[in-house]
Amino acid sequence: MNHNPAAHPVRECAQALIAAFAAHTGDHARLRDAIRDATQPLTDRSDLTTLGVKRQGNFVTNSKFLYYDGGLEMTLNEMPPGTRFPAHDHGTCEALVIYAGRLAHTVYERTDRGEQDDNAELRIIEDGVLERGDITLMMPPVEIHSFEALTPGTFVLTVVHGRMKADRHFYRPDGTYTIGSPPSVMERAAG
Ligand SMILES: [Fe+2]
Predict the structure, then answer these.
(1) CA of 3 to the centre of ligand 1 (A)
(2) Measured in angstroms, how far is the CA atom of residue 116 from the centroid of ligand 1?
(3) Ligand 1 centroid, distance to 7 Cα (angstroms)
(4) Angle 165-170-173 (CA atoms, 0-180°, nearest 5)?
(5) Separation of 90 CA from ligand 1 center, angstroms?
(6) Residue 119, number of CB atoms within 10 A of its CB
(7) Which residues pair with 7 in a beta bridge?
(8) CATH number for the domain including 120?
(9) What integer pLDDT is reported at residue 96 of this predicted model?
């Protein structure tokens, strides 16, 4: 039987990612490198933005599902330049692989222990600009980040392992936070 892996590039990538999470969850450097290797056949493609199925996003300019099976999610997201997505956690691993453009990206560690209701202390532990081919991996317990596209046409391949927790935190710069939905969305909805 003639088997051509390139005929099913998204499936091949998903299988490689499933193997990567099975082998390396808990080892940040190895998992990050394995995700980069697994996604490279997709990010090397010039036609990646034509793949996938449109998805409703509440922040991004446009978003498409490339893969979803309940245990693994791959989406391609075009980020709006000039709008910073608030710092947030996930409860699981999330990797961002830059496909095009430039993304300012900050990783935080929460340093308080919840002593104060509705107030968190975040410490920046990584701050930089990601460009095509770069990858960043949020892996609990260090898994809070915020980001902002610096150029139009910034596309990010996002990989999520398992399900995000329902009670995700979205932090405001003043240290307060909302749970479940990003504050920008909630505050806009509230008028
Ligand atoms: Fe995230």
Answers:
(1) 36
(2) 24
(3) 30
(4) 155
(5) 6
(6) 14
(7) none
(8) 2.60.120.10
(9) 98
